Amino acid sequence: MSALARCSPIYYNCDACKCVSSSQNHQTSENRNLVTNRRSSKPNRLILHNRSKNPNDPSLTRALREFADSGLMEDALHLFDEMNKADVFVWNVMIKGFTTCGLYHEALRFYSRMVLTGIKADSFTYPFVIKSAAGASSLLEGKTVHAAVIKLGFDSDVYVCNSLISFYMKLGCERDAEKVFDEMPERDVVSWNSIVSGFLAVGDGVRSLVMFKEMMECGFKPDRFSIMSALGACSHVEDCLRMGKEIHCYAIRSGIEDVMVLTSVLDMYSRYSEVSYAERVFNGMSNRNIVAWNVMIGCYARNGRGVDAFLCFQKMSERTDVITLINLLPACEEILEGRTVHGYATRRGFLPHVVLETALIDMYGEGGKVKSAEAVFDRMGEKNLVSWNSMIAAYVRNGENYSALKLFRELWDWDWDWDSSSLVPDSTTIASILPAYAESLSLSEGRQLHAYVVKARYSSNTIVLNSLVHMYAMCGDLEDARKCFDQVVFKDVVSWNSIIMAYAVHGFGRISVCLFSEMVTTSGVSPNKSTFASLLAACSISGMIDEGWDYFNSMKREYGIDPGIEHYVYMVDLIGRTGNLSSAKRFIEDMPFVPTARVWGSLLKASRNHNDITVAEFAAEQVLKMEHDNTGCYVLLLNMYSEAGRWEDVDRIKLLMKSQGVSKTTSCSTVVTRGRTHVFTNGDRSHVETNKIYEVLDIVSRMVEEEEEEEEESYVHCVSKMRPETLLKKKRNSPRRHSVRLATCLGLISTETGRAVVVRNNTRICRRCHEFLEKASKVTRREIVVGDSKIFHHFSNGCCSCGNYW
DNA sequence: ATAGGGTTAG
């Protein structure tokens, strides 16, 4: 060991060579790595001079501070090398310098060097070190430092504790943060602010507000920091508009009205859709920065004020940033400027940018431009879970369930062992994909997803549970839909709408109505447009005519909700059901909307059910004007004409269909047994258990005493003109071998006896099958649930929940 | 000398 080293009290453990060298030698070589473009200073007399216990020259210390404070860490390092390191202060200056530059790892390395050198850290050291541990997101280092803090007795220092609170909050350890806070011998405003903003940061807005209140009760006056956090909490917690307004008033009274505070106020009003309040705050701001403009644009864009959003955007001219565009995009759907904004973003060089690209996917998805959304998604260099979720949602929203499921499976099968950054479906993913399962009717896969929901601990998430309710209901399992609904602790309007609709489509309108009154009397949740849509659906499907009218009339009168076109559709169904078709027609003519194909379709269905060809022809004409490829419309006419024996009309429609390129959809039914989905077409003999299925069908048919096929007039007509192969096809299409019966029979023999047999059918069930299923439910003593293209029929003990009208 | 801060996509 050199004389130089021996006279120095400072030794340094070298990690690289395991030697113990003098700090001077080692540091110089190590620092050379950091300070690449400068020559390191050579040891000289000055250093020998400084090796003594003499304190550092005040001018040197001042210079070091100046370097560090202005971010010149290279210069600071040089100077540091030449100074006496027995002094804690110089270490603190260095650590602080690195921390403020964001060189957190460097700061932490300096701290450990300091400890290893034998210098005792003081109460000034720790706040910086802890901040660096937070910045480096290193829970382990932070906890180690915390241990040292306790050992050295700094755990009563306000500054140290305040930084510990922020550290733990930043790393999501709110319990540790709270413990530090609770055990502090004295707290100041910063302690309170740290805990209030911390709870907000970990997503617990409620506790944030609770602490804010407690802070005031303890006699602390909220400052601008407290106000900003509390306003943020109000924005993230439901029903806190009042509280937000109170805080706004407090800010005004206390004269705290700087740009940042006002921007927080603005954001709070924006999130509560209080556009005029937001405008007032924005207009009253003496100087606005880009953030304020962005918030105002977002406020307009998300509240149906697209034009104003664009006006703001124009006023900003080129002073826009990526966030401006992200906020502007929701307005594009309304203004139809999506592509323009996309182009603008490209020209300004804002792309690629994950959040902006994700916002573009949403925008295209909302506007029905799935292909554009897909193009953005496919070209993204960096994708996060949100991007995947948006793309899945875009597919689902536009009915591309197959693509949605494919993408979801890709995400699902992600190689999670590859590294920790791999993407794991979250509650949003689940809530987005579940409707696709509901639409694609794959109950077994939906169940698998439910299992995942439980495993991933999303089973108390309202949004997830709501979509599970919907999925189960649409897949035919009303019982499990109800179970999920009952599991929702915090029921929102969507929860209620989902369950009301579930009972409605299953033909239990009475229960829907009861649930509605429970909703308005006890739950405290206010009904919205969709609630009434579900309710009117329930009334129309279950034939509750008077109630339907009552609800329709009370919508506007009692709840201030204007009926939309969807409500009129259900009303046409409802009126049509009574058989008063002229009244239904008049209702359509008097409604304040241009009738859609769906509205006329509703009248068409009613005229078919009441066998009124004249009205049917009129309604069909209207439908075909708008949708000349509407298969269902042609088929319905075809059936009505053939039942009436109007063969020339039958042929005319057939010709029309051919010219329009429309063909009858092949009717098929599916049933799930032991997790496997079986598909049947009419007269299908392709199933491995075909013989067994037909045997069962025979037995059940005999039990229900269905009469041998009568040679109906229509049948005779067809037969007489048919070629042999067509005749064979016709025979296969006999109601006695309809797919729905085949699927039901397989269901009867391969599912548990206690459970209902659930069959899905892509077309409307024919009268004869309906009758068959009614009787079959009685003789087999099984509940049979059949979902057709619109509703579910629950056959039980000889009766159907649809009351024989569908 | 030290600690705490506003905007964005689902």
UniProtKB/TrEMBL annotation:
PPR repeats lie at residues 87-121, 157-187, 188-222, 289-319, 384-418, 461-495, 528-563, 630-664. It comes from the Eukaryota. GO terms for biological process: plant organ development; RNA modification. Keywords: Repeat. PROSITE patterns: PPR. Residues 735-806 form the DYW domain. GO terms for molecular function: RNA binding; zinc ion binding. Gene3D superfamilies: Tetratricopeptide repeat domain. Belongs to the PPR family. PCMP-H subfamily. This is DYW domain-containing protein.
